[in-house]
Amino acid sequence: MDRETTCCFTGHRPDKLPWGTDESDPRCLALKARLDGAVERARQAGMRHFICGMARGCDLYFAEAVLSLRERCPDLTLEAARPCETQADSWPQAERERYKAILDRCDYETLVQHHYDRFCMQRRNRYMVDRSALVLAVYDGTPKGGTAQTLLYAIRKGVKTDILELEAEE
Questions:
Q1: Closest to 45 (Cα-Cα) out of 151, 136, 137
Q2: Which helix (H) or strand (E) holds 95?
Q3: Which domains, ranges and CATH numbers included, belong to the chain?
Q4: Which H, E and C letters describe 122-167, residue by residue?
Q5: Cα-based distances in Å from 11 to 63, 72, 83, 119
Q6: CB under 8 Å to 138, separation ≥6 — which residues?
Q7: pLDDT tens digits, residue range 101-146?
């Protein structure tokens, strides 16, 4: 893949979202609509390859937005960047099934490492940023956590960021 046409994503898991796992909440629906718009803007800016870290919450929203856009724009590709083989093993059954369904529709799958360790998520995030010209993010402004670390890494590396703030939904 060409870095100049690659976009990756970082965002919060359900425990940091005001609506948790209730995706019927109007704030969640509004965020998904904004995410659809951000993915479309990225496509219009020349992005053709999208990398998703496949975490619960916003990552899966992003993957679904790319897959939806790919139905109209078949030149788009989606890569699942998995931090380890056991990423979804402890998730609720419905989310494991959603994960598998998304994985089955990805054009590429990258396994960053086989076994979980405390750094595998960070390695996955750096893998994505290092291959991207644009980082899309759903971010609530908190200075701790994987989303904040990924954005800081992208900024240090000079990678363009497009941040969708959570406060706009409330």
A1: 136
A2: helix 93-105
A3: 3-169 (3.40.50.450)
A4: HHHHHHHHHCCCEEEEEECCCCCCHHHHHHHHHHHCCCEEEEEEHH
A5: 12, 25, 15, 17
A6: 10, 11, 12, 31, 35, 58, 61, 62, 147, 163, 164, 166
A7: 999 999 999 999 999 999 999 999 999 999 999 999 999 999 999 9
